[in-house]
């Protein structure tokens, strides 16, 4: 059967000669809530059609079969395995450079520090050449390479983490000595803690007259980052990006911190890595910076990145110089990609271009199916089900509120919620609207976002939609804690199903003073009861769904009327019925206990 690129539920039902209700039910089974006028894309429609035993094609072209993809799919290794060392022979492991991310509040000097470190190391090489930002670069200290992720701001960091790619070994938190702990400093700290990577504080701008290191250290202690001099174990290095002071100390500290981590990887296998940055470039097409994490990437290697497949045409380093290969911990710019990948995507080298193509095709197919099956990651409603599966569950929350006062109030009430089976954890909190990075953080931590008297940015809403993250809006603390309480007790918003009860045929409209028209009817099957759901059918079409407001027999109000008896049915807000219409009555039965 041919289907257009887009059609409504109703149109699809008509094409399949089934009831729209059945289509809606089928979509619901796959986690998609729809209504009769909902637009469906071809992919979704095709899956529904398939469930009704109909093979759908679009515009005459055959639907791609999953067969080829399915073969290829078996060649796809899970991400955890790609980067895990467990499958590597211990003898094949070699030391690899650490990967460092630089984070902090805007204007505290992240870019300046990244630039200063890089310049001091490549100054001689460059000699007037233009330095390009490609998202990552490598420097050497004491003969040991260190890789810096050169994407200022933590957006990239969280976006990547949200995709399950944790690529950094060390985080450098930049705090300006003349400013102190600011909102994005706090945010960065929470991200770093959530990622569980070691932290080094770079106290920047110490050249400034109004630099006040003690205030910064105290401020950090107040947010749970105890630096060494304050009795903690977080190293702090004082630097000035402007005067290029302390940068060597910072590099030394990075090497010191990662020494115990004993970072290793196997360079002698097909490469796998993460895309750090990607864009379209005039004359070079799509260009991506990949951080190789396992194996060695070589010119000519067939690869797949998400649904993009191809062959490595050329590799260059951050200075634009040609490279033959890039090993673990090394960034490289890959040119000549057929499409622009997303930061955070994984590049995987496979045995042949054919395999790469098959894997990409399989992913397109899987995505299509997953779209229909997608269900929110954590919803209060699901909590009860999950509780029955696991002994103790975490209910992870990202809290955004309009003021510190409300945040404190919220946290206070939330921590008072005690349940032996559920641990309510606030993994991130902040003042202000819900932004994209909040949603990314929620995705990374399987959390839901609580927006308290704040709005959500457009991009946050898009990200939430895409990643199926639930954003719940509240204005009253009590409502939130109440919802959580109820969810924990498994009593959240009971769901109901409609159970067919009976049918009546409308014989004539009857005028009743004060009420208007009621339907003089004969119950032809089962029973009709007061308060039940009433569906009015004209022929095959349902013209209205409403409620049985009241029932009458001989001017008496009755609770129900059974088969074979006549009665007057008063339908809530509906008087447009006609003789011959059929009223079906459904009662609601609670589905969850
Ligand atoms: P970012 O937003 O964190 O990347 O901050 P930038 O690196 O763009 O720096 C913000 C401003 O602070 C710029 O005007 C820099 O010139 C200045 N700045 C950065 N580092 C230093 C420093 O060590 N000392 C002084 N005095 N100014 C600095």
Descriptive notes:
With 593 residues, this protein is α+β, with helices and mostly antiparallel strands. The protein is built from 16 helices and 34 strands. The protein has an eight-stranded antiparallel sheet with strand order 17-16-22-13-14-21-18-19. Strands 7-8-6-9-10-11 form a six-stranded mixed sheet. Strand 16 and strand 17 (308-311) form a beta hairpin. The longest helix is centred in the middle third of the chain and has 21 residues, at 353-373. The chain starts with a strand and ends with a strand. Residues 104, 106-112, 152, 204-205, 207-208, 240-242 line the site of guanosine-5'-diphosphate.
CA-based shape: elongated
Number of strands: 34
**Beta content:** 25-35%
Could you tell me which ligands this complex binds, including any ions or cofactors? Answer: guanosine-5'-diphosphate
DSSP helical segment count: 16
Extract low-pLDDT stretches.
60-78, 123-130
Structural class: alpha+beta
Biggest sheet strand order reads: 17-16-22-13-14-21-18-19
Residues in helices, as a percent range: 25-40%
> What is the terminal-to-terminal distance?
42 Å
The overall pLDDT average reads: 81
Radius of gyration over all CA atoms, rounded: 31 Å
* Largest sheet composition: 8 strands, antiparallel
């Amino acid at each position: 059967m041919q289907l257009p690129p887009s059609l409504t539920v109703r149109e699809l039902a008509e094409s399949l000669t089934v009831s729209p209700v059945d289509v809606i039910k089928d979509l619901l089974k796959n986690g998609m809530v729809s209504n009769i006028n909902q637009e469906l894309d071809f992919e979704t429609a095709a899956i529904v059609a398939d469930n009704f035993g109909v093979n759908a094609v679009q515009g005459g072209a055959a639907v791609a079969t999953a067969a080829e993809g399915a073969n290829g799919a078996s060649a796809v290794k899970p991400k955890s395995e790609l980067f895990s060392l467990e499958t590597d022979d211990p003898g094949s492991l070699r030391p690899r450079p650490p990967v460092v991310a630089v984070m902090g509040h805007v204007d505290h000097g992240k870019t300046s520090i990244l630039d200063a470190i890089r310049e001091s190391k490549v100054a001689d090489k460059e000699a007037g050449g233009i330095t390009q930002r490609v998202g990552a670069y490598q420097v050497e200290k004491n003969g040991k390479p260190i890789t810096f992720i050169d994407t200022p701001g933590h957006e990239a960091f969280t976006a990547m983490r949200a995709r399950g790619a944790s690529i950094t070994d060390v985080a450098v938190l930049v705090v300006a000595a003349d400013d102190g702990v600011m909102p994005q400093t706090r945010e960065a700290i929470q991200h770093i803690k959530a990622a569980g990577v070691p932290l080094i504080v770079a106290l920047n701008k110490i050249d400034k007259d109004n630099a006040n290191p003690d205030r910064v250290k105290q401020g950090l202690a107040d947010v749970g980052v105890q630096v060494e001099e304050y009795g903690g174990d977080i190293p702090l290095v004082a630097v000035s990006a402007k005067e290029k002071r302390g940068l060597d100390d910072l590099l030394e500290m990075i090497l010191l911190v990662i020494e115990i981590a004993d970072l290793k990887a196997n360079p002698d296998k097909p490469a796998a890595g993460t895309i750090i940055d990607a864009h379209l470039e005039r004359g070079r097409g799509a260009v991506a910076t990949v951080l190789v994490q396992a194996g060695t990437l070589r010119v000519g290697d067939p690869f797949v990145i998400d649904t993009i497949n191809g062959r490595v045409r050329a590799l260059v380093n951050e200075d634009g110089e040609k490279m033959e290969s890039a090993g673990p911990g090394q960034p490289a710019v890959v040119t000549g990609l057929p499409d622009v990948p997303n930061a955070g995507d994984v590049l995987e080298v496979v045995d042949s271009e054919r395999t790469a193509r098959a894997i990409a095709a399989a992913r397109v197919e899987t995505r299509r199916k997953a779209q229909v099956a997608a269900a929110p990651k954590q919803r209060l409603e699901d909590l009860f089900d999950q509780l029955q599966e696991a002994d103790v569950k975490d209910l992870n929350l990202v809290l955004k509120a309009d003021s510190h006062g409300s945040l404190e109030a919220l946290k206070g009430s939330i921590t008072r919620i005690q349940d032996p089976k559920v641990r309510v954890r606030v993994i991130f909190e902040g003042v202000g609207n819900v932004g994209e990075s909040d949603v990314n953080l929620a995705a990374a931590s399987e959390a839901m976002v609580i927006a308290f008297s704040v709005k959500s940015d457009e991009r946050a809403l898009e990200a939430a939609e895409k990643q199926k993250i639930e954003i719940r809006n509240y204005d009253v603390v009590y409502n939130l804690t109440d919802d959580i309480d109820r969810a924990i007790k498994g009593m959240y918003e009971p769901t109901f199903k409609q159970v067919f009860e009976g049918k009546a045929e409308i014989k004539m409209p009857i005028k009743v003073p004060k009420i208007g028209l009621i339907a003089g009817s004969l119950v032809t099957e089962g029973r009709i009861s007061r308060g039940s759901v009433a569906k009015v059918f004209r022929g095959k079409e349902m013209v209205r769904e409403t409620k049985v407001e009241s029932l009458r027999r001989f001017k008496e109000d009755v609770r129900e009327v059974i088969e074979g008896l006549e009665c007057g049915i008063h339908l809530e807000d509906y008087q447009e019925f006609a003789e011959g219409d059929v009223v079906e009555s459904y009662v609601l039965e609670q589905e969850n206990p």
